[in-house]
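Hi F.,

I've been meaning to write this up properly since the lab meeting, where we talked about keeping a consistent format for the predictions we share between groups. The idea is simple: the sequence comes first, exactly as it goes in, then the structure tokens exactly as they come out, then a line or two of notes. No screenshots and no reformatting. I'm using this chain as the first example so we have something concrete to point to.
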Amino acid sequence: MSFTTIEMKSGHTIPVLGLGTWKLTGNSCFTTVMKALEIGYRHIDTAAAYGNEDQVGKALKKSGLKRSDLFITTKIWYDSLKYQDVLKQFDQSMQKLNCEYIDLLLIHWPNETIPLEETLEAFQKLVETAGVRSIGVSNFSLTKLKKAIGLSSLPLCTNQVEFHPFLNQKELLKYCKNNGVVLTAYCPIARGHVFKDPLLQSIAREKQINEAGLSLAYLMQKGMVVIPKASSASHLLQNYAAKEVSLSTKEIELIDTCNRDQRLVNPQWAEF
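Output, unedited:
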């Protein structure tokens, strides 16, 4: 791949910059994924719950790119984590995405009412028989991640969580780094809030980039994968260029001071 990548515990690599597709649906999703692939994105993040896997699949096929040049992540929704439900939802996702394999399959949210062992057993089955290359979790707290790692017979390669300058989950990041888990940051530009912060505005001006690119570069330099959502060609290009931005230790330390534990994604079933 042309990207900088991170090697996961499974032995496979994940591109550090991807396209998030949450809330992209219908033709908007199709055209955005097509634009992203034309620009050079090769990592696309989707989920059964997003209702857009079919549009992602159509764009992947239309692009004409080789499957081996792409990295596709999808997720099993938190109410479908029983063994048979996992297998059923995964089969539906594969049909919609029209892919012969999935690079990364995640538990979308933890669910206390379904034994984690049962879910992980189904994920293991999919790795062994159905073309899943790597597995991981999403929205797992430090406590839940430790439990999942202890229960899984296969390496859990990633934990995809909300992470941006205003929600610096440094203890979770430290644990992930120490245990070979790649942390993937969603909402990496804090739903646009980065554009309003005076400190980020100041550093971005000095670097001659925008605040979104600054935030993405900051997270990538901390060793994270980022999956910003964008739909316009200009935003896709600006985000893509962030992987070329280099920040000094001083600049990273300054951005660290922006943390205010501001969580933007906190649904009723979350434990946060």
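Notes:
The beta strands are 5-7, 13-15, 19-20, 43-45, 71-76, 102-107, 132-138, 156-162, 182-186, 225-226.
The two ends are 36 Å apart (CA to CA).

If this format works for you, I'll send the rest the same way.

G.
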